[in-house]
Structure formats: structure tokens, C-alpha cells
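Technical note accompanying the year-one report. For the benefit of new consortium partners, we illustrate the data format agreed upon in the data management plan: each record pairs a sequence with a C-alpha cell string. No post-processing was applied to the example shown here.
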Amino acid sequence: MLERGPRRSHGELIDDRAGLMDATRGLYRSVGRSVGERKPWRFAAFYGGSSNLWFGNTPRMLAEDFELQQRYGVGWDWPIGYDDLAPYYDEAETLMAVAGPTRSPQDRGGRPYPQPAHALSLPEQRLLARHGDDFFPCPSARASVDPAGPGARSRCCASYVCNLCPVDAKFTVQNGMAAPFADPRVELRLGARVQAVDHGAGVATGVHWREGSGAGAREQQASGALIALGANALFNAHILLRSGLESGPVGRYLHEQAAVTAVIDLEGVDNFQGSTSCTGLHYRYARGPRRREQAAVLLETYSSVHLRLSPGRWRQAMVVTGIFETLPDADSRVTIDPQDPERPLTEYRGPGDYCRRSIVDFAGDLERMLDGLPISDTHVAKPDDSLGHILGTARMGVDPESSVVDGDQIHHGLRNLLVLGGSSFPSGAPARPTLTIAALSLRSARRLLASSTP
């Protein structure tokens, strides 16, 4: 396994909390027609990748998220459906020891989550009572119970700095997948910057990479019968382009969801009783026929405290975030930076009018989604500049002219090359994508093994 960055312990990451994002800024260059189009992309370039920095929210996509065009006449359908992915969602949730509710907006086939859901705050308990058909506790890969054996993660301490959990309660590659990397058959090469996939006669034959920098840089090469790219959507596309694999829309349809945060002032109801950060999800506008005209929005509700500057009402406030789906634009893309061919160049055209219509309606939607709470004021912020959900650029589909990989994330042209991760997403549903990325990879691996077994 080739890893671009170093291996850093959990303690080292905690100590360098403020500098982690700065380390990635020189690894790509963002251009655009305006400041708003010169978008920052958040990711982690060291062992374990962005699993080290994610918040740990693990909602599944809905069945209709895979069928936007079929159901609502917009966007693109995935070549696989919810039922195809459901058993691998189960497997991913088990691997991550996800804590989740007994009732879910998706069909789970009666299967419980590995851990019970986190406790809701008092405002969320009111929302559950009033909006029971639309409001659910948020599934998360942050442990809700005390460790049950050696190697089990600590219980969430509700300190609300989940991107770098101080007690390591959140699933990461480092704390949850140590066993595969300890296997003597696995060799991990750190500081290995993949340059290209070697190929010929329609077959991927290996990769070559560079270790070190400046005059001390060394070129390395390895051959293989099966090659898998597992970088993010910036670097998967960049590697394909540098390999001369330019057929189909390689690099195009770069996207991520949009997000808008609001602070809700409450009257007579304190917050801050939940047992983790994001504890609730509101699905009222995340599904249904409104998607014909404007983007779905999934509302996240937070137990984390936002101190209200009003004596005697310090905890009478709640933070919520709307996550908005986007329809990918072919002109939003990754190319090779002419100033530095080892660096991706990103061009982003914004979230699009379909998404913007829902952002404009967000304040009014909040009134309806939060009906039942005693609200005195609502403070809606500007959209976030980045979520760290880099999607598209090697989208899946059945037609090699309009997609890069098939539903198993196998490259259309090189059938022994897998291109894994968020780069394969044809659309950006409002559910945070990490669980789906994991489920897709598990599905690809299981189906590949099944097809190679005599």
C-alpha cells in the first residue's frame, strides 16, 4: 500500500490540531472566475487520510438518492440502487461500531445498529415528539457505550471537538483497522507520491511513485495484477490524467454538498444534554417531490453548546446545519496544473441554481422543521466554504462515454483497475458521504473476490 503522507499518532495529531489543514494547501491549486469559485478543498494527506479529521456522522443515503432522474427528472441515476448497497452498509456500520436508533428513515431489514443511539438534548426530544415521521437520532461512528474489550474505542466524552476526538472515541483507520496493516503480507510505504498507473494493451500493469523531495527524490515502480486507487476525488482524477487515461469525463463533475449553519435562540428550554455533538437529523425536506425543482436538504441538529449572550439563558440556544445536495456540473473539474504537474488544478463553478433555490428557502424551511420549539430568533450564517466531502471526477455509470467506472468502481477501459472513494459519486445527496464510500468499497471488494473464486 502506498501512502502519500507520514504516519502520525493520535497524540501527535491532537498536538498539531491547528496546523493540520495548513499542511494540505500547497498540494493543489484552485482557480475560478471569482473568489467564490476559487474553492478550498479540505482533506488530510497522511496515513488514515480524512478518517482522522471527520466528525463521524454516518447517515445512509435514501433509496431515492440513487434514482434522482428516474423519480424526479433531475440529475443522474446511479448504476446501483439502495438494495444493492444495503448489506454493505450493514458491514460498514459493524466495522465502525456505529451508534444509531431503533427506527430509521431507510429500510434496515430490522437489523439493529451495533451500538445504541446517543442521547438527545431536550430541544431534540421535543422535535422527536412533534416530528416523529421526519426526525431521527443521528447515527454516528462515535462510541455511545463504554469499551467492551481490548482495543474497543472509548465512550464519547461530549467535548464537541469531534474532528480530533481527545479520547479517540470516533472510528478512524488508525484505531479501527490496525489488524490488516499488521498482517505480514501487507507492506505500507509512507511518503509515496503516486505519479501514474502503468498500463498497456488494455491492462493495468503497475504504478510508479516518487519518494523524498528535491535532489534526494527517488523514483520507484511496482508491478501488480490488480491496482486500486484510493485517493480522494482530486488525486484519483489527477493520477488518471497523468496516466493518459483521459477517456470519458475524467476529472469532470467535481462537487460536494453545500452547508448552511444557523443558531436558534430558544425561550425557556436549555440545550446541551445530548451525549455527543450532532445528535439529530430532520428529513422533512430531504426527500419527496420538491426535489423536482430544488435541492434536498437534510437538517442536522446539535447538542453542542452555543452560549447565548443573555444572562440566565446561556444554554437556551441550538445550532443546526442544513446539508444541501448539489447537481454536479461538467465544467467543475480537476486537471493537471501547468505550473506544477504533480499538483491537481481545480476549477469550480459553484453549487448551481438547483441548490441555491433551497439555500434561499432555508430560513422559511427552518420555521416548519423546528415547529414546536419556543423560538425567539434565528440567526442564519453564510454558506460554508467547504465540508471536506470531495466527490465526482471519476463517476460511476454504465456508459463509458459519460462515466469513468462501473457500479463496482472498476475502470471501464482497464478492467483490473479500481478507482475507489468519493470520486465515483454521480451525484451529491445531502447525507454525509463517508459511510457510503466505505460501503461502496466493501461491495467492490466482495464482488471482486466472488468473481475470482473458481
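Partners are asked to follow this layout when depositing records. The first strand starts at residue 2 and ends at 3.
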